[in-house]
Amino acid sequence: MKYAASDTPSPSRQSPRIALLACVAALFGAALFSTAPLAARPTEPSASDRQIAMTVRYFMERQHLSRHPIDDEISQRGLDAFLKTLDPWKLYFYQSDVDEFMTQRNQLDDLFRRGDIRFAYTVFSRFLARVDERVATATEWVDRPHDFTVDEEMIRDRDEAHYPKSPEEADDRWRKRVKFDLLTQIADKSEIDEVRENGIDPEVLTEARDKIRKRYNSLRKRWDQTSDDELMELYLTSITSGFDPHSSYMSPSTLENFNIQMRLELDGIGASLRGVDGYTEVADVIAGGAADEHGKLKKGDQIIGVGQGTGGELTDIVDMKLNDVVKLIRGKRGTTVRLEVKPVDNPKEIKVYTITRDRIELKNQEARSTVIEWGAKPSGQPYKLGVIHLPSFYMDMDGARAGLPDFRSTTRDVRRLLEGFNRDGVDAVVIDLRFNGGGSLTESVNMTGLFIDRGPVVQVKGTDGRTQPYDDPEPGMVWSGPLAVLTNKFSASASEIFAGAIQDYGRGIVIGDESTHGKGTVQQLYDLGDRLFGLANRPSMGALKMTIQQFYRPGGDSTQNRGVLADVTVPSITDHLDGIAESDMDFAMAFDRVRPLRHDRFAMMTPELGAELQRMSMERIAASEDFAEDTTRIRRYEEQKDDKTVTLNLIEYLTEREELDVDKEQEEIGEKLSDTDKPVYDMDEHYNQEALSIVVDYLKLLKENKVAVAR
Fold first, then answer.
1. Crossing angle (nearest 10°) for helices 47-63 and 228-240
2. CB-facing half-sphere around the CA of 666: CA atoms within 13 A
3. Signal peptide position in this chain (predicted)?
4. DSSP labels for 210-240?
């Protein structure tokens, strides 16, 4: 089964990938199907690990799109990526450690060919030793006095950081790290005028120290709980990412979470979880799930113990790795789990909830719709706009392979919503693909077919250099009226296939950031158990997600590294985030073109129409106080994000945060990604209002230009 990968990088320069990966962890943190034993620190690779490594090597060399051999170059890239994965800020390893590892810089490819991954264990063992040392140093610095009035800075651009050359240098690096962490905690609880007048509140400082101390100790314990499977995933993905940023190895648990994402259902309690300073916190309670029906577990509650059945012993999960907590809580429907909870509204009172697991459907991750009345027709009646929010292009792969007639499908769900819009007599349809990271290539093609009569949707080129078109499989259109597509820099892969085809056909208007993410490659998922042992009684060995093709729009352009350019842009901070676009990623495939295919050209979008819509939108935006504030925030963000250092002076830090809190901006974007309870389309947001105003302008200009629109 082929699919366009859905992972996109984090907006954060200060903590790359952390914010968005935390959102993914929260979304799928409602726990696995069995109660596997908890992980201990890795010891040595097994025979199965060797088999997995050799299988990954075999497929990467023979079927990856680049046809790049596993050679010294891949070895060097893999080592760099592995060290960056473990120690991105260069806080743990000494330079002497790295120099020692670098003696193997050109040997990892030779070891990999033999399935030998012992080097990963050597590096990780040293890393754990350094973590123990650094956490001991950090906890000492937590309790020492710090002068927050002196003018000193800490490097916050990891590209500018270097490995410490001595224990003294490492100690000073951690002094600044601890001081910064304390400073951010103090700043969250302090007002600048109060600090100027009275200094730091002693209670605030004590609370900050307690929290940071717990955070560091929890960090050490979580690394100690790394499993062999997780280390294998880190190392093999470091090697495969040397080919391109989207090829990776998935451990069995990662593969299971991927399958949950695609089929939008699982067995469990229906609560998403997140790790916060060693505690497991309820990030969300899924509507209609077992926990929601139980009625007592709430967002913000801390789970501190888990027991199986009505009488099983409660296991203390404080400082336990989130994945292991997930394994304890998730389980087969009909079974019970007991949760020991500190309620958010009364943390001093410990309660135990017994919840019966059930099938959980991730309803808020499927296509949802609403009809919004906006603007005014010449008759005075409002326009009716049908909005579909689509978080991903999902498909139940197992159900599809099994030939189930009702397997979960994006296209089937969107068709149903469009048929409802037809009955309601809406004037235009808006497909909201903001933050849609992609998913199934098949679903993006089939869904595009709901809006065109027939013809090619995408072209795909593989290792042989030949292009193959993927056509709309069914004649006719479910929706033939005016269409708008909302995108941003987080719209990737399958989202770009859909938006690009709509644009090439002139079928509708694309509104949003200047361009989408720019992921124009196709990955294939190889279940290694299937490949090695067949379907019957196969062991769980994870999967290889490998780039095998590049896709192109009907007009011949790839979206790779370039994305889909919006017809009308609306100012947004997402358009200015670094480290998000495909072009920002290491070893991304290059943009190119192939021969365009013959396809229909609708008269529902022209460059002239787009230019007029942009002019009308800019006039409204120029008169908007909300967008004026956005412009100021964007300008300040651009100024701050290029700073290589951050001040450790509390007054200066608070002053900068009053102007703009970069971390807060990124946190809000992360919350939008992970929020499972948000409305289909929030009309309280001025951005959303402007997008619909553009759609109304579009309808009026279509009528004035006498464009025939059938519904």
1. 20
2. 24
3. none
4. HHHHHHHHHHHHHHHT--HHHHHHHHHHHHH
User: Which of 423, 357, 434 lies closest to 391, judged by CA?
Assistant: 434
Residues 211 and 310 in one domain: no
- Give DSSP secondary structure letters for 385-403: EEEEE-S-B-B-HHHHHTT
Report the phi/psi class of residue 444: left, alpha or beta, with left for phi > 0 and alpha for psi in -120 to 50. alpha
Quick: pLDDT tens for 422-465. Answer: 999 999 999 999 999 999 999 999 999 999 999 999 999 999 99
509-512 and 568-569: which strand pairing?
parallel
pLDDT greater than 70 at residue 124 = yes
Examine the fold and report which residue of 341, 361, 381 is the final residue of a domain before the chain moves on: 361
From 315, 342, 361, give the residue that closes a domain.
Answer: 361
Indicate whether 431 and 294 sit together in one domain.
no
Distance of alpha carbon 373 from its chain centroid, rounded? 32
Tell me: the pLDDT tens digits for 499-541? 999 999 999 999 999 999 999 999 999 999 887 776 656 678 8
Q: What's the start-to-end Cα distance of the chain, in Å?
A: 35
**Structure token pair of residue 640:** 């701050």
* Distance (Å, whole) CA 363 – CA 352: 28
State whether 71 and 87 are in the same domain: yes
Angle at 569 between CA 564 and CA 571, to 5 degrees: 125
Q: Of the ranges 128-142, 211-225, 630-644, which is most confident? A: 128-142
Q: Within 10 Å of residue 103's Cβ, how many Cβ atoms?
A: 8
| Number of structural domains the chain divides into | 3
Range of the domain at 144: 45-243
Q: Is residue 172 part of a domain?
A: yes
CA 135 to chain centre: 29
